[in-house]
Amino acid sequence: MRQNVLSPLDETPWRTARHLGASLVALGLAAASLANPGLAEPLPSASIARMAQLPSGGLQAVETTDGELLFFSENGRYVLRGSAVDLWHGAKLTAFDQTQHLAGRIDLARLKLDVADLGAIDVGEGPEVVIFVDPFCPHCTALYDDLAPLRATYRFRLVPIPVLGEPSQRAVLALACLSGSDPEQAREALLAGLTAALAEPAAGCGEAVAQRTLIAAQILGIRGTPFLIAPDGRLRQGRPDDLAAWLAAVEERAE
After folding, report:
1. Residues 6+ apart with CB under 8 A from 152
2. Could you write out the DSSP letters of every residue in the chain?
3. Exposed/middle/buried for residue 39 (C-beta within 10 Å: 0-12, 13-18, 19+)
4. Is 173 helix (H, G, I), strand (E, B) or coil?
5. If residue 213 lies in a helix (H) or strand (E), which one and from where to where?
């Protein structure tokens, strides 16, 4: 798999934190197995069967060996027992597989998030594929070549976000300004890698769009680019080895 370009936040500390979080959850389960008269319903003494990091909220879903679903804070201090509600999907979470399935998806329509409000630059026609990109991300540039043979099948909605520092911030702001008056020129500048040559936008132009994009990226938990959302809501961090095959999997499950 091609590695995605990450933001200036190095991925290594995040990976280390996740492993530490898993250890702390195990510690929490072990501690919970001790007799505690303060608990009306003591936690089970079962061990961890499976666990999954939820995309936001600092929670991990844990299935114990006796089949119980628990939600632990990342430091293992707090535990939520039984079901939870995924408000983004309007679903009550009662099983590990269901929780993991929904954690890997986003329903933009249910969230009422129109990426046109985020300065999306459209390529092609058909079911929508949303892709968050950085103007200077090399893997994003390589991904643009993958779009060409699929333009008649999918509508790719490219949302520029600045994850690679100040030059990216300037380019995203210039694209946000330009896309409002000349979307064709904005599209060509992004796809051809010419964003650095774009004129400085007038004061205030594109700022509202750029701010909305940053807020959306933070809410969705996007740390690097490219970040793809398939027509069925499946998420992928990084450029797929075979974009057509990854998208075709959406249609195969829909049949």
Report:
1. 124, 125, 126
2. -PPPEEPSS-HHHHHHHHHHHHHHHHHHHHHHTS--TT-SSPPP---EEEEEE-SSSSEEEEEETTS-EEEEETTSS-EEES-EEETTTTEEE-SHHHHHHHHTB--HHHHT--GGGGT-EEEESSSEEEEEE-TT-HHHHHHHHHHGGGTTT-EEEEEE---S-HHHHHHHHHHHHHHHH-HHHHHHHHHTT-GGGSPPPPTTTTHHHHHHHHHHHHHHT--EE-EEE-TT-BEEES--SSHHHHHHHHHHHH-
3. exposed
4. helix
5. helix 207-220
Query: What's the confidence (pLDDT) of residue 36?
Result: 52
Residue 28, both tokens:
């929490």
DSSP state of 200: P
Measured in whole angstroms, the distance separating CA 110 from the mean position of its chain's CA atoms is: 16
pLDDT of 2? 46
Sequence letter at residue 22? A
Instruction: Give me the residue label for tokens 């590990």.
Output: 96
| Residue 140: count of CB within 10 angstroms of its CB | 24
- pLDDT tens string, the chain, 255 residues long: the values are 444 443 333 343 334 444 444 544 445 554 554 445 455 555 555 688 888 888 766 788 888 888 888 888 877 778 888 778 888 888 998 888 998 888 888 988 888 999 999 999 999 999 999 999 999 999 999 999 999 999 999 999 999 999 999 999 999 999 999 998 899 999 999 999 999 999 888 888 999 999 999 999 988 888 899 999 999 999 999 999 999 999 988 544 433
Q: List, in sequence order, every residue forming a beta bridge with 36; answer none if it has no partner.
A: none
Please calculate the CA angle 135-109-153 and round it to the nearest 5 degrees: 60
